[in-house]
Amino acid sequence: MTKTRMLDQKVSTLVKERPYLLDFFTAMAITLPRDQTSLKEFLQAIPSAHLTEFSLDHQSLTNQCFDFIEQMETFSSQGQRSITEVTIKAGHDKNGDPEQHEVVLRVGEVVAVVGPTGSGKSRLLADIECLAQKDTPSGRQVLLDGEVPDEKKRLSGDQQLVAQLSQNMNFVIDLSVGAFVRMHAESRLVSDVDSRIEQIFRTAVELAGEPFTLETPVTALSGGQSRALMIADVACLSASPIVLIDEIENAGVDRRRALELLVKEEKIVLMATHDPLLALSADRRLVIGNGGIVAVLETDNKERQTILELLGIDKRLARMRDLIRKGNRVSSLTKEGASLLGSSQV
Amino acid sequence: MSKPVRKSIKLITVAGPPSSGKTSVILRTIEPMIARGFTIGVVKFDCLTSEDHHRYNEAGISVKKGLAGGLCPDHFFIANIDQALQWGKKSGFDLLVIESAGLCNRCSPHIREVLAVCVIDQLSGVHTPRKIGPMLKSADVVVLTKGDIVSQAEREVFAFRVRQVNARAAVLPVNGLTGQGNLLLQKHFQNAPTTSSLENYKLRFTMPAALCSYCLGETRIGQDCQIGNVKTMDFS
Fold this sequence. Notes:
The complex is a heterodimer of chains A (346) and B (236).
Chain A: H1 3-8, H2 11-17, H3 20-26, H4 39-45, H5 48-53, H6 58-80, E1 85-89, E2 103-106, E3 110-114, H7 121-129, E4 141-144, H8 151-156, E5 162-165, H9 177-187, H10 193-208, H11 223-237, E6 242-245, H12 255-264, E7 268-271, H13 276-281, E8 284-289, E9 292-298, H14 301-325, H15 333-341
Parallel strand pairs in A: 3-7, 3-8, 5-6, 6-7
Antiparallel strand pairs in A: 1-2, 1-4, 8-9
Chain B: E1 9-15, H1 22-35, E2 40-46, H2 52-58, E3 62-67, H3 73-90, E4 95-99, E5 115-121, H4 128-131, H5 134-137, E6 141-145, H6 152-165, E7 170-173, H7 182-190, E8 194-195
Parallel strand pairs in B: 1-4, 1-5, 2-3, 2-4, 5-6, 6-7
Antiparallel strand pairs in B: 1-8
């Protein structure tokens, strides 16, 4: 729609089609008219003194309003065009020797990134994050769905490829779980906000094990509950196709379920982890050394069987943890310890 | 080592609230550029005291410090900016970064046709973008810091709200500690227009205004003492 046509439209109609406009004006403490007022009349009727408080005048407000509409249209069309494949074309290691592996990451895939500190894991993740075009120290190139990303778009920061889930992350805002998810959903311009809140809330409670309510303040959630809410929220609401996990805490979150959820929601999951259970749950492991990808290991059948064993150990550990939490003594520690190492029975 | 005097250099204004990470972001961004052969200088404008110039010195970067003292830092900044540019030219820099104090949300040091960067801290909460005025609204690049310790949801809401007040700017998350995300900011720095003199250049937005008795040193309180550009609240 042209700007002139939009200016002649009724504000009420425009807001119905573009609910984000409500937020735009509310942020400036401007109430929207419900009557037949056109956008042009409405904008002109706002007192200059009020606009000055927001460092605006009528012209800059009009421009800003149109810029915002344009941005939001691109934003929502981006959501529909989701990326299915990210290619990391080989660069070189710290000695300048060429990397042997080109890697293609596909949605619904879980990939572990392994290697000692200083081996170049962060470099790889940073290359993906900034859509490296042979212009980073590694010389790698990142393609989206097989194509070189548009440089202008890259510089605008519009496309954030990587969503992060890290142990260091916190909720900063003081809101209830429900209001928090609503705020995120509204900024993502989803149409069915209420059902999305319900979906995320249920998933988070399931992952956490310990129940909480929609009214619980996010800052009052336990470590496990916060992590569970963050995982559910990223899976169901984040715009980014890649989810980067640096560690999922042992306590309080069903780690395997969390991975399943992210895969189901068509994310590419990257995990920087040396936790055997998580690393073997991945489809592949990228082995990093001396700044380059030195090997790509597909999880083989033997390793998949090891997972069962690890799950057994995990359950036992959980049971012992529970005993301690409830104030019991863990009397058969040696027996339990022996069976932890020895048998694979659950 | 003396460098040849330059006719025009790239000029960049960086503004942002106190402790948002301006110095760290600038350091992490220009260090790799210096390693690639750029010569870069910094002018740090601040209010009362500033230790940041030591951080630049330690990194081997030429820095000048200006303290506004009792003046509005913005007004102090604009009265000295062209001299700062001349210093940059004389020193033979390819690029001069002006870091301003950004003491109140009404700060607006950005100049037309000079690359304008605003640094804000995501830890300050999702309401921040709405509270910051022209230094955010008129920026070309908005840098979001401290994202590594804030939930992904809040980061996305934060970026959305920045776009709500400034849809044209590039919005780039940069980690001031590790430097992650600095590559794209380096590119913006490299693409900045060059300037030879700021004469006839214009501010993007008017600076916070005041010319009243208190500007001139009045300390007494009371209606009789308020003379000049005074704004009163309505308590009725």
